[in-house]
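Email to the structure team, subject: histidine kinase model.

Hi all, the expression group asked for a predicted structure before they design truncation constructs. Nothing fancy, just the C-alpha cells so they can compare against earlier work. One-line instruction: predict histidine kinase, return C-alpha cells.
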Amino acid sequence: MRRYAPAALAAALLGQRARRRWLHLIVGGALFMPFWMVGTLLMGPLLDEGGMFSGGLGVQFGAYAVGLPLVAVAALFPLARPMAVAAARALCGVPAERLADGPARGRAAKARTSGWFVLHLGAGALVSGATLALPPFAVSVTALPFSPALRASELGRFWGLDRPWWDWAALPAGLLMLVALAAVAAATGTLLARSAPRLLGPSPADRLAAAERRAAEAESRNRLARELHDSVGHALSAVTLQAGAARRVLDAGAGADLEFVREALTAIEETTRRTVGELDGVLGLLRRGDEVEEGVGPGLDSLAALVRGAGPKVALTVSGDLSAVPETLSREAYRIVQEGLTNAARHAGGEPVTVRVEARTEAWEITVENPLSARPPVARPHGGHGLRGIGERARLLGGTAEAGAAAGVWRLAVRIPR
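Reply from the structure team: attached below.
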C-alpha cells in the first residue's frame, strides 16, 4: 500500500529504525564522556578558564578536539571491535554477515576500527549534546506566545527584539527546531549505518579465518556423519541379515535348526546393544557441541565382536601384531571393516564373506571379499555413502582404497602406509 508523504517522513524521522539509530548515537555520546573529561582537565589550565563544567565554549570544544585522538587510541584494544559490531548489529540495523567477528587483525583493520570509533563517538557526542540542550530551548521558544513570563525574560527579549508581533513566529520556529534535531539524528544514524560495513566489515584476514572455521566445522560434521553412517548403517544391515536368516530357518517348519535361530537372535542383541552405546557417545558429543575426535569409538580390539555379529558366514583372518597399531588407525580400521561388512551384506546375498586384516612391515592392509550374488543388491533411494566414507578415512591416513567387482567377486582393498 502506498504511503503518504507525511507518514513516510514521520517514519524516516521517528520510526523504529530511526529511534534505534538515535539511541546508538546517544550511546556513543555516553562513551565519549570519559575522553571529554580528560580533555577538559587538559584544556582548562591552558585557556585559563573555569573547571570542567564552568568553562566556556573554548574549553568545551577544545576538550572535544583532545578527546577524539584518545578515542582512536582506545579503539586499538582487542575488545573494541566486538563491542562496536554488537552495537551496530543491534541498533544500526546492519546485517550480521556484513560485519566482522572477533578482534581486529592487522594494521588496516585496526585503523578502520579506530576510524569507526572516532566517527561514532564524535558524532554521538554532538547529537547527544543537541538532544539534551535543544528540546528544552525549543519548547521554551514554542511557549513564548502563551507565557507573559517567558516574553519578559531574557529569552523573550532576545527573541522579540522589541517586536511583539514576532512572538507568534516562535511557535513554528520551536517546532522546526525539534524537527531539525530529529532530521540531523536520522541523517547521522544513516551515515553510521552506511559506514559500518566499510569500517567494521571483514578484512582479508577475517575472511580467511572465517573460511578456516567453516572448513573445520564442515570436517567435524562430515566426521560425525561418517560415524553415524558406519555405526547405524552396519547395525541395520547386520540385524536385517540375521533376522532374515532366522525367519527362513523357522519357515522350514519341523526340524528347524533352533540353535541357528538362537545364535542369530544373540547376534542381533549384541549388535544393537553395541550400536546403542556408540550412538549415545556420538550424540553426547553433538549435544555438548564438541567435535568428534579421532580417538573416539571402538578399535581393532572390538573387531571379533563386530564380525561375530555380522553372521556365521563371515570369516576373519588377522595377520601380524595388532597391539602396536596406533589408536587413530585402530579406530579407523574398525570403521572401514564395519562399512565393508555393511556393503558386503548388500552385495553378497547370503554368500560367505572373508575379512583379512594384515599388519605388514611397510603398511596395514584390510581386505573384504565376497562372491557376487545372482540377485542384484537392493538399491537405495539416494545412493550410498559408505564407500566414499571409506575412501575419505583412508586418504586422511595417507592411504588408498579400491572397491569393485571382478571375476564374480566383490573386493574392497584398503592400504595404509606405516
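Residues 378-383 have pLDDT under 50 and may be disordered. The domain at 210-417 is CATH 3.30.565.10 (Heat Shock Protein 90). Ping us if the truncation boundaries need rechecking.
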